[in-house]
Each structure stands twice: as C-alpha cells, then as structure tokens.
Fold this sequence. Notes:
By secondary structure, the chain is α/β, with parallel strands linked by helices. The protein contains 4 helices and 7 strands; from the N terminus they run βαβαββαβαββ. It has a single domain, classed as Rossmann fold, CATH 3.40.50.150. It has helices at residues 14-21, 34-47, 84-94, 115-124, and strands spanning 2-6, 26-31, 52-56, 69-75, 95-106, 128-135, 138-144. It has a 7-stranded mixed β-sheet, with helices on both faces. The model has no long low-confidence stretch (mean pLDDT 97). It binds S-adenosylmethionine.
Amino acid sequence: MKALEIGPGYGTFTVPASKIVGESGKIHALDIQPKVIKNLTAKIEKLGIKNIFPIVGDAYKLPFGDKIFDIVFMVAVLEEIPDRQRALAECKRVLKDGGLLCVGELFPDPDYPLMKTVIKECGKAGFVFEKKFGSWWHYLVRFKK
Ligand SMILES: C[S@@+](CC[C@H](N)C(=O)[O-])C[C@H]1O[C@@H](n2cnc3c(N)ncnc32)[C@H](O)[C@@H]1O
C-alpha cells in the first residue's frame, strides 16, 4: 500500500501507519514546516524505520503525480488549511480511483471541527462518505474517491 500523510507533525500517527503498511508499503509524510520534517527524519532514523519518506511540501501543491496513492490521511490538519477545497482537490488528484481519504480530528486541538463539518467539506470536494470511527471528540472519517 502506498500512503500519503499530510501534516505528520512529530509522527504520532506516521510511525504506527508505517507498521500497518508493512515492509512492502510506503508512507510519504508531507509537512509544510521544514523543522517538522527535520525532526521527523531524525526520529525515523533513530527508530530504524525504512518505509517512511518525509518531505517538505504544501497541501495546496502536492509534489506527486496523478492517481498514485491508495490512501491519503491527515490528523488535526484539515482545519489548519485556509482553502480546504483546494487542498482536498489535490488529495483527490493524487489518489487512485477508489482510493481512500481519512480525516482525523481531536477535540483539544484549537482548530477542532465537528465531524459533520468534515463530512460536508469532503463531500463538497467530491469524496463519498464511507465510515466514521470514534466519538464526537476524537474521530476518524473515511471517504472514497
Ligand atoms: C496540529 S499539527 C498535527 C500533527 C500530527 N498530524 C498529529 O496529529 O500529531 C498540524 C500539522 O499540519 C501541518 N500543516 C499545516 N498546514 C499545512 C499545509 N498546507 N500543508 C502541509 N502541512 C501542513 C503543520 O505544519 C503541522 O505539522
């Protein structure tokens, strides 16, 4: 499985995801802050993880070709992006047909949106709602392209 995480931060979800995709899978971890990517790179080197590929970049202009990822995921990121439709259009572009978009949010985050807001935004971008996990204050929503 080839996955893209947008806004990995310190890799809280990147590292477990790298174990889920296994040695034959890849996680590309893209963040707009060079310092975040520097820290994440140091962390995965220390842990000896070989299937995470950190990269500096902007969700508005993903440095990848069309239809190459099986899944794009982000946690506590979408509401930080002012033009969410622009970012979601990029997610759609890089996802394979039938690929998955997963958006997670946590209540203590200052930008935390209600789940219905995320479902509305992703639906507007053309994603099809599939399943929700968790509760109102800590959730993950899965969509299909
Ligand atoms: C609140 S942190 C979440 C970090 C991590 N996902 C977690 O849950 O621990 C949001 C992250 O999104 C990144 N980010 C914000 N806007 C972005 C954009 N336009 N493109 C890529 N990354 C972005 C930030 O630099 C930051 O690392």
